[in-house]
């Protein structure tokens, strides 16, 4: 197992280098003059200022030199100061967030992580349970209902379902509200008496023993979490059901039953264990996608995560913010793939020897 994990870790830097080259290559669509405007907060007043910015960041140099400077930074000839550098955490200035891109990511990511965590627990639990139960009751009423629900859930556009949730539960019934907190509590959490340990409201409110803020944050999570659940549960349900049915037809299952093993043992130790392998792939990538910011859901519900910020950056043509978001989500996906590979090895020992 250790050798398998080491091999995957050695591949990780190569993949990340390829990702950064691809993302930086997207920036080369713009010319040096256009790119120079991305590195400053105010529009340069004259040609000399533009030329100075191009020289400072080496925007007129060959691609490989620009990539290296973008990755590790470059030394300003006038001041001797090292400027830029993705590895140094300098992703540029976000015009949309009105602060450096890295600061926007760090400030907004806890909210997205909180949303993803609350969504993934029921998504994985319900998706796998319903999918497995549907497969074990193949062509019976439970299976038929599950298949219809899966088709409806997966076919429903996210933004349509989100707008319906707002229409019914906010505009009509006024049970839940968009955003992360009510106006009153949004002001209270910024006061000195409230300590933000993790910047995730449900956790910080409990750590501060503010159960009223905890309940309010839960109310604001219900609509976005439900919206995410409808789509993702349907997907995991379909994958789990198909995988379980395929494993149930394998010869080793027939052999296990012929030996007289209890049906519960056959299902839990043989069928379900092998059926979970493709499910892990979908669940891992789903979690990475959620943590990368569910753009539509956060935008519709005015949720202050990195997804809604990325949508605002795209509308405003904030190139550096979009590149920073793309790099961030790409790194999350690479890490998720690594975790999925390790889980493969845990579930299927044959993977370790391949």
Please give a handful of descriptors for the protein shown.
354 residues, 4 strands, MetI-like fold, 72% helix, globular, mainly alpha, two-stranded antiparallel ribbon, two-stranded antiparallel sheet
CATH topology (fold) name of the largest domain: MetI-like fold
Largest sheet: 2 strands, antiparallel
Total strand count, please?
A: 4
- Quickly count the helices: 16
Total domains: 2
* Secondary-structure element pattern, one letter each: HHHHEEEEHHHHHHHHHHHH
Strand order of the largest sheet: 1-2
Explain what you see.
With about 350 residues, this protein is an all-alpha fold. It has helices spanning about 1-25, 30-35, 45-55, 65-70, 100-135, 140-155, 160-170, 185-190, 200-205, 210-250, 250-260, 265-290, 295-300, 305-315, 320-345, 350-354; strands spanning about 75, 80-85, 95, 100. It folds into two domains: about 1-95, no CATH class; about 100-354, MetI-like fold. It is built from 16 helices and four strands. A two-stranded antiparallel ribbon has the order 1-2. Strands 3-4 form a two-stranded antiparallel ribbon. β3 and β4 form a beta hairpin. α7 (about 160-170) packs antiparallel against α10 (about 210-250), α9 (about 200-205) crosses α10 (about 210-250) and α10 packs across α12.
């Amino acid at each position: 197992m250790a050798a398998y994990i080491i091999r995957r870790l050695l591949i990780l830097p190569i993949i990340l280098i390829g990702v950064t080259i691809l993302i930086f290559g997207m920036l080369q669509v713009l010319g040096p003059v256009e790119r120079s405007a991305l590195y400053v907060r105010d529009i340069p007043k004259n040609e000399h200022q533009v030329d100075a910015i191009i020289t400072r960041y080496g925007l007129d140099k060959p691609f490989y030199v620009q990539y290296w400077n973008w990755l590790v930074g470059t030394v300003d000839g006038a001041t001797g100061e090292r400027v830029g550098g993705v590895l140094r955490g300098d992703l540029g200035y976000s015009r949309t967030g009105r602060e450096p891109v890295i600061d926007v990511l760090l400030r907004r990511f806890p909210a997205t992580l909180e949303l993803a965590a609350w969504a993934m627990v029921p998504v994985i639990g319900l998706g796998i349970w319903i999918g497995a139960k549907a497969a074990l009751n193949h062509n019976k009423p439970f299976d038929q209902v599950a298949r219809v629900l899966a088709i409806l859930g997966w076919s429903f556009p996210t933004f349509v379902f989100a707008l319906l949730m707002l229409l019914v539960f906010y505009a009509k019934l006024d049970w839940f509200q968009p955003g992360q907190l009510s106006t009153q509590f949004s002001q209270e959490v910024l006061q000195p008496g409230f300590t933000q340990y993790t910047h995730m409201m449900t956790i910080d409110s409990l750590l501060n023993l503010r159960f009223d803020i905890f309940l309010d944050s839960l109310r604001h999570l219900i609509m976005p979490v439900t919206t995410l659940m409808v789509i993702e549960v349907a997907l995991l349900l379909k994958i789990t059901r198909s995988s379980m049915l395929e494993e149930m037809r394998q010869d080793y299952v027939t052999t296990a039953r012929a030996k007289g093993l209890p049906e519960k043992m056959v299902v839990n130790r043989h069928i379900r264990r092998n059926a979970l392998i493709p499910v892990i792939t979908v669940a891992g990538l789903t979690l990475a996608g959620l943590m990368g910011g569910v753009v539509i859901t956060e935008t519709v519900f005015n949720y202050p995560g990195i997804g809604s910020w990325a949508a605002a950056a795209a509308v405003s043509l904030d190139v550096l913010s979009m590149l920073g978001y793309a790099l961030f989500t790409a790194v999350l996906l690479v890490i998720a793939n690594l975790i999925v590979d390790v889980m493969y090895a845990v579930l299927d020992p044959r993977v370790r020897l391949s």
